[in-house]
Amino acid sequence: MTAATSVLPAALALALLASVPLTATADPPYDGQPRHGSALFGVRAPGRAAAQEFTTAGGRVTRVSVYLGSGAATGRLRAEIRRTRDDASSAVASASVDLAALGGAGAGWVEFPVRADLVPGRTYHLHLQAVTRAPGPVAWYGTPGPVRGSLTSWNYDEPYWGGWHPYTSRLAFHVNPAGGERCGETEPCYVPAAALAARTAGLLTDGKAVEAVAPSFAVGAAYVEGSSVLRLPSGRWRHLRAGAAASSVVPADDPGARAAIAESRRWSAAGRVPGATAEQRAAVRRALLSMRALLRPNGAFAAAWAPAWAYSWPRDGAFAAAAFAATGHDEEAYRILRYDARTQRADGTWDARTRLDGNGPPDGRTWQLDANGWVPWATWQWYRYAAPDRRDDRLRALYPMVRAAADRTARTLGPDGLPPASPDYWELDADAPTIGTAAPLLAGLNAAADLAVRLGREADGERWAAAARRLSRGIAGSFAPRGYPRTADGRHGRDSAAAFMAPPFNAAPAGLRGALDSTYRALVLPNGGLSPGDDPGHDWGPYAWTASTSFFAVAWAHLGDGAKADRVLRWVLSHRNGLGELPETVNGSGRPSSVAPLGWTDALVVLAASAREGRPLPTPPLPSAS
């Protein structure tokens, strides 16, 4: 063949080309060109190779890079600098990479560490070839168009040409790449195709603005410990400066970045980083920093930082508020609750989600009644952790919200003690009351009743306690006999929300432990995580949802079933992405997918780790019988 066929799916190629600069090196020496829109020459087997002529102005070469695309998951490639193109004995430097170590099939810039002293101005050949035959196509990419001032690119295709053949196409390469030529700065390093199952991989923040880290730019990067500054493969840092419209790459000793790192570490140190193991504490530290980034100055809490997720759900915010409160970040917790108070609707309910500026919902998505339980529960959690000398005054500012929510809940309960059918965390219409609504409402009524008593509002407290008893009897009569399924009529299978009947949400009723065990077994997937449910009318596919899985870590940790909680936590933490962020879902291949981080899962991991450390969150008390 005269050229390689494309080895990349169209979506992957488009994602990797999105940030390609279409400029070319024009002046001698010819030591690189960045354009890589086409798969030019195959290099998958010993009978296939490619070479690029180049010259340098300096003598010492320490690295070279090429733009590689591979449909093969395994194989080994060798890059050589040769004095003579077709003479292997003329090589003055070589290095190799393993495709499996790069993550398998994918595409991007690959850097080869080499050591060679070259003669300035002399023409050398950068030679690339598979050491052993790869089990799929592997191509060196470049541009079919002319590049001013360039030198010849060569294709070795023994079956077709019988040897070497020159081309006017130009391969993508750099000799001694520096600055923006280093992979991970303006263009991604080699990105495994599996990494692109996720939409986002991490977050950069200046404390107000937020920028998502694209999966393609997370490869080979890592956060500077205890911060939201990224250390890139080049050793430099990516930092979102205060007031900047976008992040920039800065030296590792940049004063602004160092100040941001120090501020993040002070914030973490001002609170608590719970966990029973070093792994749990590391995950919690990252989760708290990501939650802080998702929290807006006005108290809105973004579910994640991607277009369809960049809204504030009362449910997600409630868990974040509880996690902030439990770790000593009172102001962040209270900020969320104040936002809830401002966005509560006149009838005591909330929109399913709001825009982050608080200016109403983004669409006509049906409101979800479970918020009327989650927000009072989170308010109660905040109160229990807040400083006693000021919490009553601050609670009084929130109390109208709590009263409106609890009164609305009480009014919704039917003759059977249950709430009406309503969408819940599944965000799907329901045709019967769900445990995902009933259990949070019970937690919210108990929380509201206790808060009322603490403020001397006994009449409110008695009213909500009576409603809580009615709801508790309704759950006991309809859900408990069936093992806490999704709906009271038992027609829609199991639901991971059965865990909401456990502490720190509700005091565990008799028989709950067995119901949790059977629900977990029913929902576990081949990849080890959980589906939200097994309703025959809704197919969740092979995706495990980290929030649903984490429900059980929280429940079992607070029930004292440490071994079960640790098993679930290990699974969740083992499926963090390369930056240590917790994704929304894990696909059938066990790869993080959807968005990362997801604020709800972050908060759940904090709650579970706190319990495993020996500091479980409190549970709203049951009302006394009247």
What gap, in angstroms, lies between the N and C termini? 86 Å
**In which range does the helix fraction lie?**
25-40%
Shape: elongated
Cα-atom Rg, whole angstroms?
A: 29 Å
Low confidence ranges? 1-26
Q: Biggest β-sheet, characterized?
A: 8 strands, antiparallel
Q: Tally the helices: what do you get?
A: 15
Total strands: 23
Strand content: 15-25%
Mean pLDDT: 94
Structural class: alpha+beta
Describe the protein's topology.
Layout: H1 10-17, E1 32-33, E2 38-42, E3 48-54, E4 60-70, E5 76-82, E6 91-98, H2 99-102, E7 106-117, E8 124-130, E9 138-143, E10 153-157, E11 163-167, E12 170-171, E13 173-175, E14 191-192, E15 202-205, E16 210-213, H3 215-218, E17 222-223, E18 230-231, E19 237-239, E20 248-250, H4 255-270, H5 278-294, H6 314-326, H7 330-343, H8 371-385, H9 388-412, H10 435-454, H11 458-478, H12 512-523, E21 544-545, H13 546-559, H14 562-574, E22 585-586, E23 592-593, H15 599-612
Antiparallel strand pairs: 1-13, 2-9, 3-8, 3-10, 4-7, 4-9, 4-13, 5-6, 5-8, 7-14, 9-12, 10-11, 15-16, 17-18, 18-19, 19-20, 21-22, 22-23
Helix pairs in contact: 5-15, 6-7, 6-8, 6-15, 7-8, 7-9, 8-9, 8-10, 9-10, 9-11, 10-11, 13-14, 13-15, 14-15
